[in-house]
Each structure stands twice: as structure tokens, then as C-alpha cells.
Specification:
Elements lengths: L12 H11 L23 E5 L2 E4 H8 L7 H25 L13 H13 L7 H10 L9 E10 L5 H20 L4 H8 L10 E5 L6 H7 L5 E2 L4 E3 L2 E11 L6 H31 L2 E2 L1 H6 L3
Antiparallel strand pairs: 1-2, 1-8, 3-4, 3-7, 5-7, 6-7
Organism: Arenimonas maotaiensis
Catalytic activity: [protein]-peptidylproline (omega=180) = [protein]-peptidylproline (omega=0)
Family: Belongs to the PpiC/parvulin rotamase family.
């Protein structure tokens, strides 16, 4: 039997909840087969991954892989497996502590997201950074502290609901075909946006105007603000579907004074402390619910 695997993690509680919610998506309902005596009984997907007594089969990993795009399919598989392992560790601890009985979802949270949030709030306390720590960070990172960058963006939204797995694959495939064509004929972006996009911006040729962080959905934001100018080589996936994106211009922000960014610095340092605390907490959970099989999946990415 393999030893429990240490899993590095750099996600905050919101990201953990988001990953858990995504990973909890189920396959399409096939219950109608039960009424057909001639329908073959589907073979159980193979299992190479286990958390405590809970097995995670290859079908679950395959569904999760759509949220972990990578050039190497082994990397996408390992990333998906890691996300499912983290989710399962948290859910088993939620069950052990009986937290689900006291959950009150906030806003649009699912019960699972709310339970994970409550677990982390209770079990992973995070001290607030003092002013000395904040000022030291400011002096060490002046060149990185500026008003928000702005991106002028065009996009083509190829819509597919979050639970439509086939629709998502189709949207991605269409997006990749459009990107391939736009590399050869960039002047056709407006035409393609008006023809294919499900966003109201299609009437403007896909023009979203100037965007700063926080104006779009978090998963779109995270990917957009890592880009350079030009047509993006791969689609960006969001809760709405897949996006073909072109960054027309980037306007970098102006330097900020300490007073202007003290609150953001404190939030950032608190996040770093929380990430370290989460990492340590996961190691405790791994000792309680041993993880079997993840090391072998990760080894395939080497």
C-alpha cells in the first residue's frame, strides 16, 4: 500500500468551495435504462484512486478534467484527480464533525459549498497581519503595487450550461476551429462574433470594452488577466461556456501610495497565511484519510 501523499495546495476557501462544487457534477441520468430489460448493464469504471474508504473512479476524473485544461492529458488527469482528492478530504471531515447539519448557505452557495466554507472557518483560523508586516511588504513590492490594469477585450461566447458535458466539448471544439481560422483571417473576428456568439456584445462585434478585475465572473477573470495582447491560442472556459478571446490593448495602472493599498496588502498577507494553514490542515486530513493512487497519476506527468 502506498504511503499517504502530501498534496500541495494554494487555493483560498472560495476557490476550494468552487472546486468542490465543480467536482460534484454528476453524469447524465440514465435511469431510463432500468425499464429496458434488454439494455446492457454498464461496466463499472476502473478505480485507481482512493481517499480513506472512498473510491474515486475514472469516470469522475474524466468529468473533472474538463475544468483542468492542459496540453498534456496526463497533466489534466493528475490535476483533476488532485482536485477531487482535496474535495473528498474536506467532505469526509465534514461528515465526521457533523457540520452539514448546521449549514446555512449564503447567497447562491450550494449546501456543499457552505459546508466547506464552515469547515474552514471553524478548523483553519487565520490571524490578521499587523501594520509592520504590511509596511514591510509595501516597501519590498512598490513596483507591483499600482491601480488596476485594464484590458480592452473582444470575445465570442460559445454558450453551454455547466451540466451539459457534451455541449461543453462541442463549444470547445468550435472555439478551437474559430481560433485556427482567425489566426489566418484575423479580420473576420467581428463576422464570427455576430454569427456565433451568445453574448449581447455580438451586436458590437464581440467588443466588451475596457475591463478591470472583478467586472466578470471569477473564473474568467483569473484567466483573462494573465494574458498578453493578441488572439488567445486556446478558449477560456467559464460557467457560461467557452470564449474565444482577443486582447486588443492593455493599460497598466499607476503607482499607489501605502495608504491607498494598505487594505489590499493586509488581505493578500492574510490569504498567504490562510494558504499555509490550509496546506497544513490538509496534511492532518491525509493522515486521517490516507490517499492512495495519486502519486502514480502525478508520476505520469513527468
Amino acid at each position: 500500500m502506498n504511503k499517504p501523499r502530501i498534496i500541495p495546495i494554494v487555493m483560498d476557501s472560495g476557490a476550494l468551495s468552487d472546486a468542490a462544487a465543480r467536482a460534484s457534477e454528476t453524469a447524465h441520468d440514465h435511469s431510463h435504462d432500468a425499464h429496458d430489460a434488454s439494455a446492457p448493464i454498464p461496466a463499472r469504471p476502473p478505480v485507481f484512486l482512493k481517499v480513506g474508504d472512498r473510491e474515486i473512479d475514472e469516470a469522475e476524473i474524466a468529468r473533472e478534467m474538463q475544468h483542468h485544461r492542459a496540453d498534456n492529458p496526463h497533466t489534466a488527469r493528475a490535476d483533476a484527480a488532485r482536485a477531487l482528492v482535496v474535495r473528498e478530504l474536506l467532505l469526509q471531515e465534514i461528515e465526521r464533525l457533523g457540520i452539514a447539519a448546521n449549514v446555512e448557505p449564503l447567497d447562491s452557495e450550494t449546501l456543499e459549498e457552505a459546508a466547506i466554507r464552515l469547515l474552514i472557518e471553524q478548523e483553519v483560523p487565520t490571524p490578521e497581519p499587523d501594520e509592520n508586516a504590511c509596511r514591510h511588504y509595501y516597501e519590498s513590492n512598490r513596483e507591483r503595487l499600482h491601480t488596476p490594469d485594464q484590458y480592452h477585450v473582444h470575445h465570442i461566447l460559445l454558450a453551454a450550461s455547466a451540466d451539459d458535458i457534451k455541449g461543453r466539448y462541442d463549444a470547445r471544439d468550435l472555439g478551437e476551429r474559430l481560433i485556427s481560422e482567425l489566426k489566418e483571417f484575423p479580420e473576420r473576428f467581428t463576422e464570427y462574433a455576430m454569427r456565433h456568439s451568445s453574448c449581447p456584445s455580438r451586436d458590437e462585434g464581440g467588443d466588451l470594452g475596457w475591463i478591470v478585475r472583478g467586472q466578470t465572473t471569477p473564473e474568467f477573470d483569473r484567466q483573462l488577466f494573465m494574458l498578453r495582447e493578441g488572439l488567445v491560442a486556446m478558449t477560456i472556459e467559464s460557467r457560461w461556456g467557452h470564449h474565444v478571446v482577443r486582447v486588443d490593448e492593455i493599460s497598466h495602472g499607476e503607482p499607489m501610495s501605502y495608504d491607498d493599498c494598505a487594505g489590499k496588502i493586509a488581505g493578500y498577507l492574510e490569504l498567504q497565511v490562510k494558504q499555509n494553514a490550509l496546506h497544513q490542515y490538509l496534511q492532518i486530513l491525509i493522515s486521517r484519510y490516507p490517499v492512495i493512487g495519486l502519486a502514480e497519476l502525478e508520476a505520469l506527468t513527468a
